[in-house]
UniProtKB/TrEMBL annotation:
A zinc finger (dksA C4-type) spans 92-116. Residues 87-117 form the Zinc finger DksA/TraR C4-type domain. It comes from the Bacteria. This is Zinc finger DksA/TraR C4-type domain-containing protein.
Amino acid sequence: MAKSIVTKTSFTAEFFDKIKEILLKNKTKFEKELKNQEGDGPFPDYGDSEEDNAREIADYEANLSIENDLLRSLRDVNSALKRIEKGDYGICRYCKKAIEERRLLARPTSSACVACKKTIIQEA
């Protein structure tokens, strides 16, 4: 059983245990995928022809994009885990209201409620 977490929301301890389990599984998965990315090397070397060089650049850019996505996902997971420990998990960072439980189960790294997220997307 996880240690007791003081929080500003009405979520149950079981809910936090479930979310924390999901986040920790995701963290392990992202760290493993990042380690696999590192094993592929920073820049592929297929040969010296122009065609090979173009393929090397395309693959490098694709690998870099994947690595950046993994780093961003890992950062989001770590941030959510810190919010759980601080007792701020499940609180919208914009309106300070509780984020819906359904949203958190669907996207455990969420730091904004649906209404605020929609507003942010519309303003972008």
